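Q: I'm building a small set of examples for a reading group on sequence design. Run inverse folding on the following structure and report the sequence directly after it, with nothing in between.
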């Protein structure tokens, strides 16, 4: 991705790394403050008792989506310069299923596992170890799975293309779905709390 801030001379590669490190530390700090370094809290999502993960992730998705949309509308961001990874439908569906199964079993995703490990939790350290082992194993096996990994290509396939709507309409739908999800999560949490 070629960032306009680099082109404009506002950031050097070194200062860009400093900004990335600062953002990563802030992200980890806020994940921990939200309680997302705890596998128990994340596992509660799958037990339908605590929807903090859904709320945090939907908030992040909606905030980033609104930011990108309005920055592009105001001319501060050229969407044509934003890198969108290519879609490989079947391999990414399989990867998503493996990721989801790992999330359910471990109670942590890669980001929250790093936060958990950084705060000294043993389960976080174990998940980070498993994550690194999986990365190395996939790298070693790549020649065997390369054909599958590059199968069913769809190019840069985006959500507006999938639903056949404009960027603005897709964003409106996303916001409405998020608000409904928040309301549904609050309702389920209150029902569970009342039954306990």
């Amino acid at each position: 991705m070629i960032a306009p801030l680099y082109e404009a001379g506002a950031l050097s590669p070194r200062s860009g790394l400093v900004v990335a490190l600062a953002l990563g530390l802030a992200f980890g700090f806020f994940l921990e403050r939200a309680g997302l370094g705890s596998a128990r809290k994340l596992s509660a999502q799958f037990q339908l008792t605590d929807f903090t993960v859904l709320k945090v992730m939907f908030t992040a998705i909606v905030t980033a989506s609104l930011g990108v949309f309005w920055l592009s509308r105001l001319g501060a961001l050229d969407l044509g310069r934003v890198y969108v990874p290519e879609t490989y439908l079947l391999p990414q569906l399989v990867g998503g299923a493996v990721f989801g199964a790992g999330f359910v079993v471990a109670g942590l995703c890669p980001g929250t596992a790093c936060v958990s490990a950084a705060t000294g939790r043993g389960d976080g350290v174990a998940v980070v170890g498993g994550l690194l082992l999986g990365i190395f194993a996939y790298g070693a096996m790549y020649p065997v799975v390369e054909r599958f990994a590059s199968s069913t290509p769809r190019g840069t396939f985006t959500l507006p293309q999938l639903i056949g709507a404009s960027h603005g309409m897709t964003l409106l739908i996303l916001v409405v779905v998020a608000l409904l999800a928040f309301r549904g999560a609050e309702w389920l949490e209150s029902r569970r709390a009342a039954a306990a």
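Residues 12-195 form one domain.
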